[in-house]
Amino acid sequence: MVRRGWKALEIDIKETKNPVSSSFHRQVAPAAATQLHSQPDPRAFRANYLINGLQSFRLKFRAYCLPSYLEETSAFVLEQSTMTIIDTIAVNSTNIQQTATIATAETCADTEAQIIKNDTKDALISRKFGVSGPVTPITTGTVKLEIMKEIYCSGSLLEEVQKAKIFHDCKHFVDMPLKIDAETTLRDWHKLIASGQIDENSLRCFVANHFDEPGGELDSCEPSDFDPEYGKFESINSPSYRQWAKELHRKWPTLCRKVSDRVIADPEKFSLIPLPKPFVVPGGRFREMYYWDSFFTIKGLLASGMHNTVRGMIENMGSLIERFGYVPNGNRVYYLNRSQPPLLTWCLAAYYEATGDKEFVFIGARWFEREFEFFQTYKSIQLPGVMSLLYRYHVIAVGPRPESYREDVESAHHIEDVLEKQRLWGDIAAAAESGRDFSSRWFSQDGPVAGKMGSTRTSSILPIDLNAIICGNLRLMANLYEVIGEMSNAEQCRQQFRSMKQAIHQIFWNEECGCWFDYDIIHGCHVNLYMDTNFFPLFSGCTHDDFDPQKIVSYMTNMGVLAFPGGLPSSLIASGQQWDFPNAWAPTTWVIIQGLRSTGQDKLARQIAEKWIKRNYSMWLISGGRMFEKYNVASQNNNTAGGGGEYEVQEGFGWTNGVVLDLLLTYGPDLTFKSDDDTPVIQEEEHFSCKEQQQVSDNTTTANTILVTSSINSGLQ
User: Fold this and answer.
1) pLDDT tens-digit profile of 386-413?
2) Residues 6+ apart with CB under 8 A from 46
3) Active-site residue numbers?
């Protein structure tokens, strides 16, 4: 998709950092740009530049585009001095092809072989299906950031500190700013290593002398458009809910942050990536801006009339896309190897719906174009007989996640082969990229660690929610292009939307069950399990032409999930992970409610909304005014926050507050708060599903509640 003529295209090509490294662009793009005016069609030119040229030579560029990964482990040593790129621009009347030769061919071939060996499942998928793009590139082009990554992302300092358990939470250390510059810090560290006197005491002293406590890199701030007496919540009928909405509205300043002047002045001392505008953080241990959280927070900010704050948060996402070619998981250097569910287009569409700001849509179109290109290039897969690309979460990692280092080391304790450890760590990072970290959804039921973190296989699964999101993005992109008068781009997006909608029906829909499911690439079948993500196509508008929404209602009913008193659980598997039974979360709850509304199931949507609002409000009252990231929806008592996972339940909480405010404005005129005594006890003792094994069991923490344990083996048809 090319916008705004020759000049814009020239700037686009010169400035783009995705999907190849900025070093490549410095060498190739200027020469390519000089050929622009000899091309009869800029659309054809850019299509060749971004698709034909890059995809055709992906394997050759792969080693060059990933020095930040390859430098971090001896298994991937690739001398930069040998990475000389010889560029040839071959021009004819219709396209420009880029070819490159790696000066040291043997080194490149060895590196490529090691990358392929690094993930045997990915190699299988690549051979069978022709996977598009294996990695999330880090294309910073700055030496300073590479040094920062040696401290915060990999290396012996990170390993020793995290394994010594100096801090209870691994994230604490990687959020600590440096007291002195990174080069001196590393030099001092290597001196300590050379002395041979590394023990817990010397480690603690080193950290105390070289690092500050986290938190000082962000300053609290009051949003410029915050009105403490905002009157829109007066439409809420219930006095209890009305006052609650006002209190939640007044929490926004407590969660608003801006990057400190200290970071702006000396960014090399911080793991934080600076952002130009204030933003709302989730809360608790999550001190930075998170990508997919932001959309659901934005829905609440729009409910609070805070349009300028919303625009600023979208501009922050745009600034990350301008720099990296995608929006990372969060604005920390250790999050740069992964993104999250791509909801930028959702954010922009919601902002436009609230403001009618066409000028900002024009600006934002560049960002959603580049994000779409990124996912097409690095996260896509082509299945045989399917007319559209499909998408998966996929990360290549050479070590544990820095912010959860010990947890990842423990997850791989049963693996001896280094490359297999790296494959597992990549799949764990990919699960974090999904936003659902962690869930039985990503676990295998084969092998010695079946059903546990050590069996994570995220990259082997095509997730229905990710594909529904991208399909829906195409529909929204078409609408936004129409807003700014770019009808040809709008039609192109609509054509892609129609193709992908057909592919979703072809690959993910199960007619017998009447629902969508994730698709197992390795086994070539549905993962026939209830997950709350199964229903994303409802909201994204990616249902097939003869779709009957009553089938989804029947599926929910048969699975028994409508009987839980607090809402729909994330899954029916009690794995101990936080994105599993009995927990439910604000984002997927909101998507399900809006999806049911958009397909005419208003009564059921309202019932789920009422349950969710009541569960949140009851916990608010009991806890003394606290909001949590997740809730136990199976408990008969409304006093149970969610649990499980690799950290303690967090409160704050950005997206929870945002979803509640949006739902209260949607349903508030008709809702009344009922006491816990009015909550009926669940009487059903069994439910039947399609080809899933279920069992009813007692749960000591959830009296009179059905606990359904599903077998993944039986779900793989």
Assistant:
1) 999 999 999 999 999 999 999 999 999 9
2) 2, 9, 12, 13
3) 437, 629
